[in-house]
Specification:
Aspartate Aminotransferase, domain 2; Aspartate Aminotransferase, domain 1; Arc Repressor Mutant, subunit A; 8-stranded mixed beta sheet; 42% helix; alpha/beta; single chain; 4-stranded antiparallel beta sheet
Length: 469
Amino acid sequence: MLTLQPLSSVPLVVQIVDGLRRLVEEGALRAGTKVPSIRQFAHAHQVSVFTVVEAYDRLVAQGLLVSRPHSGFFVRKRAGTAPSVAVPVSATGGTAFDAMWYLRKIFENRHLSLKPGCGWLPHDWLFEDGLKRSLRALAADEVDLGGYGDPKGFGPLRRLICDTLAEQEVTATPEQVLLTQGSSQALDLAARRLVRPGDAVLVDDPGYANLLFGLRFLGARLVGAPRTPVGWDLSLLEARIAEHKPRVFFTQPRLQSPSGSVAQLAQLHRVLQLAERNDMLVVENDIYADLDPDPRPSLASLDQLNRVVHISSYSKTISPNLRVGHVVAHPDLVEDLAQLKMIAGLTSSEFGERLAYGALTEGRWRKHLKALRERLARSHEHVSQRLGALGFEIFAEPKAGMFLWARHPALPDAAQVANEAAEADILLGPGHLFSADLEPGPWLRFNVAWCGDGRVFDFLGRHSSRPAT
């Protein structure tokens, strides 16, 4: 039905996409027809699973295929219509989100030994000792864990968060703090409360991948706010606000994933002016604040939670398995978010919140953060030098946080490089995972904490020096 040419200069992903599109247009694949599963297609055509995942994802995003949970991929009934930026939830439950979620699941599979594209820190960089001490103390304490706990979360931890925010010049009460299962739940609650299908939603581009997936799942129309090394392209940002009139802007001003960029003070002020002028809320994802060695203002500190919803988490610094995050906002909005949280999961995991509280208060937390920041700064310097020596262009060099965003002129298709890296036991982060419009491109996200193994740069060196075909 479809013949691939492995020796062709046309990438295999493009061959699959074009071939299946042609079969659909010619009627060989009719609306509602189930196409081979990812693994069946990969086996039949002797190609990588990663290649098929990317091809199917592009076809879903283009409106030619639809993914149905637990069933597979099917030719979309409206395959002849032009695709929109975001595919809303269909009657069958299929969305553009499903295939993208599967792709991300594969790329974050821990069986790959080297993980320079992942989004977490190595275990020996985390606050393992503090967590163990907290666990021992909690086990020795006579704590009643038989109930559901406070829907807003463990009170002492919410008060501690208020104290921490006060040091960052954000004034909040414990009633304005809602504890969540990591920042992912916080972002999901905010999105479900603030976004309706068809809404234009402003997002960083490139942006926080999990958030982009979730917004697409809700049927939002994603409007990209292009990042620069010092924040956003303000002229484009203002033009897109005027054109699309988004109700909410989801953004990550500090040590952004994937670009690593940090928005400067003047940019923060301008964003808030635009939000006020256009009656727009701003959801600030500040999960990397603890990794920032420099005290700097946040949108929340400048706005004092008037139009800003502030989100953060301890998953990046204590442990990714400890799903404790929080959202801080205007009291009325927090009450709405708390109701959504109860609908989804009744209440909080007080056990995990007590563990986090114990780790934060046992006396070694600030020392841990200082050592972690210094270690990340050294890694940034090392990785920047190695990438630069190979000819990579680096988007921004914050010398802090986890990420560098880079591209090489000899590697125009980052997804293809990531596919080949996976075959070499290396996990890379291709740029289309972070794109508002799912477009392929040359950019790769590098987690500097996972780039200490020379095999990563050996692989990149071999591929970036290959003659063009």
